[in-house]
């Protein structure tokens, strides 16, 4: 048994390919994490666009939602900022937990409690991103900043999030069964 109560397992030689691919995926999701974090910080400039770009059309868009920033008051631009942050922040957390999952896989940690926790959190943030898309579009629609009929979305984040969340519980139960079995033997 390891210090965190996870049975010590010997990984098959075939797992080395999965470790290499996990390293690549950890890098991909790390890049995604930093890009989402940068997008979140960049959104903070939305209320200042009339002064930053005094002439010409300016708009902001994310996940199929596009909003013009021209001719709006500072208050309206703050609503756009809120709506965009509602869309982006769940993805920042999703990318963080996903990169941690693959980072742990690259180290050969599979049924460890931290890995299972990150998988559970990734599923949770996928579900939150589905709800965040609805909330963001509702905010923009209620404030009149998004044209009617532009709302769009997909149920895939919800479906994949629920499946991922359940899979984490299955992994945790498999870990518990393996630990119980190791104590018997």
Structure characterization notes:
The chain is mainly α and 185 residues long. The chain has one domain. Helix content is 68%, strand content 4%. It is built from five helices and two strands. It has helices at residues 15-43, 49-52, 74-106, 113-142, 156-184, and strands spanning 59-62, 65-68. A two-stranded antiparallel ribbon has the order 1-2. It is elongated, with a radius of gyration of 21 Å. The mean pLDDT is 88.
Instruction: Name the assembly state.
Output: single chain
Numbering strands along the chain, what is their spatial order in the largest sheet? 1-2
Task: Label the overall shape.
Answer: elongated
* Radius of gyration, in angstroms, nearest whole number: 21 Å
Distance from N terminus to C terminus (CA atoms, Å) equals 12 Å
Largest sheet: 2 strands, antiparallel
Number of strands: 2
Mean pLDDT: 88
Write down the domain tally. 1
Number of helices: 5
Percent helix range: 55-70%
Give the low-confidence spans. Answer: none
Task: Output the helix-strand order.
Answer: HHEEHHH
> Which structural class should the secondary elements be placed in?
mainly alpha
Strand content is under 5%
